[in-house]
Amino acid sequence: xxFKNFTYLLLMLGSLAVPLAFSFEKEVRFYTKLKYLxxxxxxxxxxxxxxxxRFEEIxxxxxxxxxxxxxxxxxxxxxxxxxxxxxxxxxxFIYEILVVKFPEFEKPNLFLTVSLVLLVAFALLAYFARQKxxxxxxxFLLTIYFGxxxxxxxxxxxxxxFYLAWLISLVPFLIVNGLLTxxxxxxxxxxxxxxxxxxxxxxxxxxxxxxxxLMNLTIYEYMxxxxxxxx
Length: 231
Fold this sequence. Notes:
The protein contains 7 helices and 6 strands; from the N terminus they run H-H-E-E-E-H-H-H-H-E-E-E-H. It has helices spanning 7-21, 34-57, 78-101, 108-128, 133-152, 159-182, 203-230; strands at residues 61-63, 72-73, 76-77, 186-188, 197-198, 201-202.
């Protein structure tokens, strides 16, 4: 086994290192909130893993064994399973930092408007790109889940921190996903996406990440709210 076989694994462990180290910071105490995050990771992870398995099976994307340690679970590399633990952990950690450090900065009406505009854009993209499976499924599922989140109207007070967390998380996302797609660790069949790339990252990946974060945060906040309802 060569050193480059550890590439994907090291990217995941490196991504986790800083958030994990600061999870015990006194003001944030993120480790105390893991009981709310774990159900979110498990639920969202199950959906994304099923999605991943099917898309890998039909050749919409694939994983380059040169950058993997060679351990597979249900035909997916171990590193890909870790992705759906590490990335939500890091992103929700950023969200909690914002909640604690900037409690007064809230623009729910502004971000509700942004959300409605994006919802229409996602629906249109799903419809007009329905022949491209990654694009269609990505934006279709995003339209359904985002629409449910908006019209259920229980997440409005969290919009500001959600959008800020997503935007801030795009910085490490560009680094990590940039490496994954540049080497490449993950290879895409361009017949199933729009063919638009930011650096080497397919445009769809940014909104794949948007959905992953949204799903984790809505469940995370729901679980936190359930705690208060019990008392």
